[in-house]
Amino acid sequence: MIDWLRTADFAAVPTDFAALLLSLLLAFLCGQVIAWTYMVTHPGLSYSRTFVNAMIIIPIVVALVMSVLSNNLVTAFGLMAVFAIVRFRNILRDTLDTSYILTAIVLGMAAGTQKYATAVVGCAFAVAVMCYLSFTGFGARHRYDLILNLHWSRPAADLGRLLRLLDRHSRHVVCATQRTNEGYGGTDLSYRLLLRDRERTQDLLAELRGLDGVSRVTSMKAEDESEL
Predict the structure, then answer these.
(1) What is the pLDDT of residue 219?
(2) 218: left (phi > 0), else alpha (psi -120 to 50), else beta?
């Protein structure tokens, strides 16, 4: 198998497989760093898990592209033509779908330019990374478990009692909205909770309903922020 890898590329320029693997691994690690940075710093509502995954796959595909080209001008022009066909004939709405298309194109180019071993190594590495991203759920953000809505009829100065109750059941509490109800008095509140124990959600709701000043308690399970 090792001997086949060394001799299976019939291109004019021989492939340095140690350098190829180092390039793919470095591209993978750099993509991870960029993806983690995006996950931590992204503030808006357009967060997409597939976009995070694409930021890891695309550097690997680009590294493989540069290995396939190997300073070959004819191959480079062929790559531009293929990308133009994909861009103008098909509209891909998902960045991860685009990554798969790019991977398939580059592997086809590697086979077409007689870099058979490069195609095998690149395909195995890309598939391994894609499976890793899928099985680990990389890119999904989980910042809270429960969305809690309630009406507080007592003065705002007494909210400390409510917050102490929420703190007993939650590791992190965020007040998303607070709206004073002019017509009926009191305040409508919405909280985002990261629970200490998800199995005790009903205990939390029961204690809230029994707390003086709390009414109209509703809750909704929060999903992972993957495609908001």
Answers:
(1) 82
(2) beta
* Extents of the domains making up the chain: 2-136, 146-221
Q: What is the pLDDT of residue 172?
A: 83
- Work out the number of other CB atoms within 10 angstroms of the CB of residue 186: 18
Locate 13 and state its tokens.
Answer: 């320029």
- Return the CATH number of the domain spanning residue range 146-221: 3.30.70.260
pLDDT digits (tens, 9 = 90+) for 85-137: 555 455 656 667 677 767 777 776 676 566 777 778 888 888 888 888 878 77
What is the rounded CA–CA span in Å between residue 34 and residue 12?
35
Strand order in the sheet with 187-195: 170-180, 187-195, 146-152, 214-221
* pTM listed for this prediction: 0.51
**Greatest extent of the chain over all pairs of C-alpha atoms, in Å:** 82
φ, ψ for residue 211, nearest 5 deg: -80, 130
The answer to whether 220 touches 146, Cβ cutoff 8 Å, is yes
Listing DSSP states for 64-114 in one string gives HHHHHHTT-HHHHHHHHHHHHHHHHH-----HHHHHHHHHHHHHHHHHHTT
- Match 């969305």 to its residue by tokens: 147
Which parts of the chain are beta strand (E)? 146-152, 170-180, 187-195, 214-221
